[in-house]
Write a structure and sequence with these properties.
Number of strands: 6
Largest sheet: 6 strands, parallel
Shape: globular
Strand content: 5-15%
Structural class: alpha/beta
Mean pLDDT: 87
Strand order of the largest sheet: 2-3-1-4-5-6
């Protein structure tokens, strides 16, 4: 279906945006988070105060990660109560990790959000998502080079179907197996209430246009949100990504394991965020692209996904065949790692890590949304947390 043919949801319905990761989700969430007032004036409720609804959704799903725990059910109830307080508005929730919901977990969202629940899944060409997905894995302490990571992802797919077990391969398919994810929700809601929006570089406005159509918003509403450099979510250059991946490899080789919470604060919210916010990569730093043989294998996966989606009968916005497209000129083989690191890049990364470790945000300037809201992720420990840790250590010393 074209964007012009998108049918808006009924007042009182709920639109649940579940991902996929690395498909413009941050851009959509940043626009919605900054436009809560104007959205409500147009009959759309984007509840809460955070960028997305990860904390509340994790509480409902009972889902914990290495950094965030599921949290108490009250976190979900606050969001649900706000939606219920605007019964005539279209509710809008967004969190890309809901893509990993099992059928039983998906049922929880239906039970909570009511029978007029619609799900939207954003997607892009399978080959094009690889650099972004690898960078995301590196941001989460991944330590394998790009082509090694791709090979592991494909090996898991060939051996196990891709969604069982642990590791980078299974993690990728749990988040990016588009037909399997769409099927969970189509079986639950009916295919007519599952909307798949396929990104297209030649039509950059399609993403916002599709959401505005589904939510009955005035054209241009989402694009009117102010841009924030830290939330623009630009991709890393090859040199930047290889620097982070190299740090991760050294950290994993250390005698003592690195605490994931410390890594998240110092590396992801420190060194990497500083580089992404305050630096413009040089042209000669290279881009991240899969070699031709691996790109061809992933294009085959994308084409198979397009056929499976067509068979499901879900509502598709955009060009379904784009899922299996290949980039113009993939390199014949993987390039050699960057031979040197720009001193300014290294200095900025160290400065960002130091600032975050001291609890001073990104490069001693803080890291907040334009509305004053802290970016998600652990920061400076609270006084209560510090005192609790001191008491724990004292009890442990006495026990010895």
């Amino acid at each position: 279906m074209s964007v012009a043919g998108v049918r808006p949801l009924n007042p009182g319905a709920t639109l649940l945006h579940i991902g996929l990761p690395k498909t413009g989700t941050t851009a959509v969430q940043a626009a919605a988070a900054q436009l809560r007032g104007p959205l409500l004036e147009q009959g759309v409720c984007y509840p809460g105060i955070a960028l997305n609804h990860g904390t509340a959704s994790n509480a409902l799903m009972g889902r914990s990660t290495a950094v965030f725990e599921a949290g108490p059910r009250a976190r979900w109830e606050r969001i649900a109560d706000e939606l219920r307080s605007h019964p005539g508005a279209i509710g809008w929730l967004s969190y890309e990790q809901i893509a990993q919901a099992t059928p039983a977990v998906a049922r929880r969202f239906l039970d909570e959000l009511g029978p007029d629940l619609h799900v939207v899944i954003t997607a892009r060409a399978y080959v094009s998502v690889l650099p972004s997905a690898w960078q995301q894995w590196v941001k989460d302490a991944g330590d394998a080079p790009f082509e090694t990571w791709i090979s592991r992802v494909l090996d898991v797919r060939d051996r196990e179907g891709g969604t069982e077990g642990n590791g980078p391969g299974t993690g990728f398919w749990r988040q990016h197996d588009l037909p399997a994810i769409a099927r969970v929700w189509a079986d639950l809601l009916g295919p007519e209430r599952v909307h798949v929006v396929i990104l297209d570089k030649s039509r950059p406005a399609l993403l916002f246009d599709a959401f505005e159509g589904l939510l009955a918003l005035e054209p241009g509403t989402l694009a009117s949100a102010p841009r924030d450099a830290l939330l623009s979510n630009r991709g890393m250059s090859r040199a930047e990504a290889e620097l982070a991946q190299g740090v991760n490899a050294l950290a994993h080789a250390a005698a003592a394991p690195v605490d994931p919470r410390v890594y998240y604060r110092v590396m992801r919210n420190g060194a990497i965020s500083a580089v992404l916010r305050d630096r413009e990569p040089a042209q000669d730093e290279g881009s991240i692209a899969a070699s031709a043989p691996l790109a061809a294998r992933f294009a085959h996966e994308g084409a198979a996904a397009a056929r499976a989606l067509a068979g499901l009968g879900v509502d598709v916005v955009g060009d379904l065949e784009a899922l299996g497209s290949l980039p113009g000129n993939p390199p014949a083989e993987a390039p050699s790692p960057c031979a040197a690191v720009d001193p300014e890049l290294a200095a900025l990364a160290v400065l960002g890590a130091t600032s975050a470790a001291l609890g001073e945000g990104v490069n001693f300037a803080g890291a907040r949304l334009p509305g004053g809201e802290p970016v998600a992720g652990p920061g400076r420990p609270s006084r209560r947390a510090v005192l609790g840790e001191l008491r724990r250590r004292a009890r442990k010393a006495v026990a010895r």
